[in-house]
Protein backbone atom coordinates (compact mmCIF):
# COMPACT_ATOMS: atom_id res chain seq x y z
CA UNK A 1 0.00 0.00 0.00
CA UNK A 2 1.12 3.59 -0.50
CA UNK A 3 0.92 6.53 1.87
CA UNK A 4 2.86 4.87 4.68
CA UNK A 5 5.10 7.51 6.25
CA UNK A 6 6.47 5.82 9.36
CA UNK A 7 8.50 2.72 8.54
CA UNK A 8 10.51 0.01 10.31
CA UNK A 9 13.88 1.43 11.53
CA UNK A 10 16.88 -0.47 10.14
CA UNK A 11 18.07 -2.06 13.43
CA UNK A 12 14.60 -3.57 13.96
CA UNK A 13 14.42 -4.82 10.40
CA UNK A 14 17.87 -6.42 10.64
CA UNK A 15 16.92 -8.07 13.95
CA UNK A 16 13.73 -9.38 12.33
CA UNK A 17 15.49 -10.72 9.23
CA UNK A 18 18.12 -12.45 11.37
CA UNK A 19 15.41 -14.06 13.50
CA UNK A 20 16.59 -12.43 16.74
CA UNK A 21 13.54 -10.25 17.36
CA UNK A 22 11.20 -11.38 20.19
CA UNK A 23 7.96 -12.89 18.96
CA UNK A 24 5.71 -10.00 20.06
CA UNK A 25 7.72 -7.47 18.00
CA UNK A 26 8.10 -9.90 15.11
CA UNK A 27 4.35 -10.03 14.69
CA UNK A 28 4.14 -6.22 14.40
CA UNK A 29 7.08 -6.12 11.96
CA UNK A 30 5.62 -8.96 9.86
CA UNK A 31 2.27 -7.15 9.75
CA UNK A 32 3.89 -3.88 8.63
CA UNK A 33 5.83 -5.82 5.96
CA UNK A 34 2.53 -7.24 4.69
CA UNK A 35 1.29 -3.64 4.24
CA UNK A 36 4.44 -1.91 2.98
CA UNK A 37 6.25 -2.59 -0.31
CA UNK A 38 9.18 -0.34 0.64
CA UNK A 39 10.02 -2.22 3.82
CA UNK A 40 9.51 -5.58 2.12
CA UNK A 41 12.13 -4.58 -0.46
CA UNK A 42 14.49 -3.46 2.32
CA UNK A 43 13.95 -6.73 4.21
CA UNK A 44 14.83 -8.72 1.09
CA UNK A 45 17.97 -6.60 0.63
CA UNK A 46 19.07 -7.16 4.24
CA UNK A 47 18.51 -10.87 3.80
CA UNK A 48 20.74 -10.90 0.70
CA UNK A 49 23.47 -8.94 2.53
CA UNK A 50 23.32 -11.36 5.47
CA UNK A 51 23.78 -14.27 3.06
CA UNK A 52 26.74 -12.72 1.24
CA UNK A 53 28.52 -11.84 4.51
CA UNK A 54 28.22 -15.47 5.52
CA UNK A 55 29.54 -16.59 2.13
CA UNK A 56 32.61 -14.41 2.55
CA UNK A 57 33.21 -15.76 6.06
CA UNK A 58 34.09 -19.09 4.52
CA UNK A 59 33.92 -22.27 6.50
CA UNK A 60 36.72 -21.48 8.93
CA UNK A 61 34.62 -19.32 11.23
CA UNK A 62 31.62 -21.57 11.49
CA UNK A 63 31.46 -25.24 12.24
CA UNK A 64 29.80 -27.25 9.48
CA UNK A 65 26.59 -27.92 11.35
CA UNK A 66 26.14 -24.35 12.47
CA UNK A 67 26.97 -23.00 9.04
CA UNK A 68 24.38 -25.26 7.47
CA UNK A 69 21.76 -24.23 10.02
CA UNK A 70 22.44 -20.55 9.35
CA UNK A 71 22.15 -21.07 5.61
CA UNK A 72 18.97 -23.06 6.05
CA UNK A 73 17.59 -20.16 8.08
CA UNK A 74 18.52 -17.69 5.35
CA UNK A 75 16.79 -19.86 2.78
CA UNK A 76 13.54 -19.49 4.62
CA UNK A 77 11.63 -16.58 3.17
CA UNK A 78 11.43 -13.50 5.40
CA UNK A 79 7.73 -13.26 4.79
CA UNK A 80 6.23 -16.62 5.51
CA UNK A 81 2.99 -17.53 3.84
CA UNK A 82 0.35 -17.46 6.60
CA UNK A 83 -2.36 -20.06 6.77
CA UNK A 84 -4.97 -17.33 7.03
CA UNK A 85 -5.81 -14.58 4.59
CA UNK A 86 -6.39 -10.93 5.34
CA UNK A 87 -9.87 -10.40 6.77
CA UNK A 88 -11.32 -6.87 6.74
CA UNK A 89 -8.76 -4.56 8.35
CA UNK A 90 -6.73 -7.44 9.78
CA UNK A 91 -3.71 -8.45 7.64
CA UNK A 92 -2.79 -12.13 7.31
CA UNK A 93 -0.18 -12.17 10.15
CA UNK A 94 -2.80 -10.77 12.56
CA UNK A 95 -5.38 -13.31 11.40
CA UNK A 96 -2.72 -15.96 12.00
CA UNK A 97 -2.26 -14.72 15.59
CA UNK A 98 -6.05 -14.65 16.02
CA UNK A 99 -6.26 -18.23 14.80
CA UNK A 100 -8.73 -17.07 12.15
CA UNK A 101 -11.24 -15.91 14.77
CA UNK A 102 -12.52 -12.37 15.43
CA UNK A 103 -10.75 -10.47 18.26
CA UNK A 104 -12.05 -11.03 21.81
CA UNK A 105 -12.38 -7.42 22.95
CA UNK A 106 -12.21 -6.49 26.64
CA UNK A 107 -13.16 -3.01 27.82
CA UNK A 108 -10.51 -0.78 29.41
CA UNK A 109 -13.04 2.00 30.10
CA UNK A 110 -13.81 5.23 28.21
CA UNK A 111 -14.71 3.14 25.16
CA UNK A 112 -11.13 1.85 24.81
CA UNK A 113 -10.90 -1.90 24.26
CA UNK A 114 -8.10 -4.41 23.86
CA UNK A 115 -7.67 -7.96 22.67
CA UNK A 116 -4.49 -9.68 23.85
CA UNK A 117 -2.97 -11.89 21.15
CA UNK A 118 -0.08 -13.23 23.20
CA UNK A 119 1.50 -12.47 26.55
CA UNK A 120 4.52 -13.83 28.41
CA UNK A 121 7.54 -12.56 30.38
CA UNK A 122 9.23 -11.57 27.15
CA UNK A 123 6.49 -9.22 26.04
CA UNK A 124 2.93 -8.94 24.90
CA UNK A 125 1.11 -8.08 21.73
CA UNK A 126 -2.46 -6.84 21.56
CA UNK A 127 -5.04 -5.14 19.42
CA UNK A 128 -6.22 -1.78 20.75
CA UNK A 129 -9.52 -0.16 19.83
CA UNK A 130 -9.71 3.58 20.52
CA UNK A 131 -12.95 5.45 19.70
CA UNK A 132 -12.56 8.55 17.50
CA UNK A 133 -11.44 11.58 19.53
CA UNK A 134 -10.51 9.44 22.55
CA UNK A 135 -7.11 9.48 24.24
CA UNK A 136 -5.24 6.37 25.32
CA UNK A 137 -4.37 6.80 29.02
CA UNK A 138 -1.18 8.79 29.47
CA UNK A 139 1.73 6.40 29.67
CA UNK A 140 5.48 6.08 29.60
CA UNK A 141 7.41 2.94 28.82
CA UNK A 142 9.63 0.50 30.61
CA UNK A 143 10.91 -0.73 27.32
CA UNK A 144 10.23 -0.64 23.63
CA UNK A 145 6.68 -0.25 22.32
CA UNK A 146 5.76 -0.81 18.68
CA UNK A 147 2.36 0.43 17.52
CA UNK A 148 1.03 -0.22 14.02
CA UNK A 149 -2.19 1.43 12.82
CA UNK A 150 -4.68 -0.93 11.11
CA UNK A 151 -7.68 1.42 10.94
CA UNK A 152 -8.19 5.16 11.49
CA UNK A 153 -5.35 7.30 12.78
CA UNK A 154 -3.87 8.71 15.98
CA UNK A 155 -1.71 11.67 16.86
CA UNK A 156 0.70 12.19 19.70
CA UNK A 157 3.55 14.51 20.60
CA UNK A 158 5.67 13.02 17.81
CA UNK A 159 3.27 13.25 14.87
CA UNK A 160 0.37 11.67 13.02
CA UNK A 161 0.08 7.94 12.40
CA UNK A 162 -2.34 6.60 9.77
CA UNK A 163 -3.03 3.12 8.40
CA UNK A 164 0.23 1.21 7.89
CA UNK A 165 2.30 3.64 9.98
CA UNK A 166 4.53 2.20 12.69
CA UNK A 167 5.40 4.14 15.83
CA UNK A 168 8.51 3.09 17.75
CA UNK A 169 8.47 4.41 21.32
CA UNK A 170 11.13 3.75 23.93
CA UNK A 171 11.91 4.62 27.55
CA UNK A 172 12.32 8.30 26.80
CA UNK A 173 8.90 8.88 25.32
CA UNK A 174 5.98 9.80 27.55
CA UNK A 175 3.22 10.34 25.07
CA UNK A 176 -0.53 10.74 24.89
CA UNK A 177 -1.87 9.12 21.73
CA UNK A 178 -5.28 10.53 20.73
CA UNK A 179 -7.43 8.89 18.06
CA UNK A 180 -8.51 11.25 15.31
CA UNK A 181 -12.18 12.14 15.13
CA UNK A 182 -14.30 9.83 13.02
CA UNK A 183 -13.71 6.12 12.63
CA UNK A 184 -12.25 4.30 15.65
CA UNK A 185 -8.49 3.80 15.61
CA UNK A 186 -7.48 0.13 15.74
CA UNK A 187 -3.79 -0.64 16.37
CA UNK A 188 -1.55 -3.64 16.81
CA UNK A 189 0.79 -2.91 19.73
CA UNK A 190 3.71 -4.86 21.17
CA UNK A 191 5.57 -4.13 24.40
CA UNK A 192 8.42 -5.91 26.15
CA UNK A 193 7.47 -4.82 29.64
CA UNK A 194 4.49 -3.45 31.55
CA UNK A 195 3.63 0.08 30.59
CA UNK A 196 3.82 2.59 33.41
CA UNK A 197 0.43 4.16 33.53
CA UNK A 198 0.67 7.30 35.57
CA UNK A 199 -2.86 7.78 36.83
CA UNK A 200 -3.94 5.64 39.75
CA UNK A 201 -6.91 3.78 38.33
CA UNK A 202 -5.19 2.30 35.29
CA UNK A 203 -2.29 1.33 37.58
CA UNK A 204 -4.69 -0.57 39.83
CA UNK A 205 -6.22 -2.23 36.80
CA UNK A 206 -2.84 -3.17 35.38
CA UNK A 207 -2.63 -6.67 36.94
CA UNK A 208 -6.16 -7.38 35.73
CA UNK A 209 -5.77 -6.19 32.17
CA UNK A 210 -2.07 -6.99 31.89
CA UNK A 211 -1.37 -3.64 30.27
ZN1 LIG B 1 7.41 0.41 5.68
From TrEMBL:
The gene is chrR. Residues 104-189 form the ChrR-like cupin domain. The lineage of its organism: Bacteria, Pseudomonadati, Pseudomonadota, Alphaproteobacteria, Rhodobacterales. CDD domains: cupin_ChrR. Signal peptide: none annotated. This is Transcriptional activator ChrR. It comes from Phaeobacter italicus. NCBIfam families: anti_sig_ChrR. Pfam families: Cupin_7.
Amino acid sequence: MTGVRHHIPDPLLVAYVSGSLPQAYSLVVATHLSMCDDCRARATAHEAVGGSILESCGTADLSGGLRQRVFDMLDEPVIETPRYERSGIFPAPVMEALGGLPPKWKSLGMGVRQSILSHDEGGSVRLLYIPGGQAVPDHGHNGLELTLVLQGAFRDETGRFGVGDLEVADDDLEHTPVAEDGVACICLAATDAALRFRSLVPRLLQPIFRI
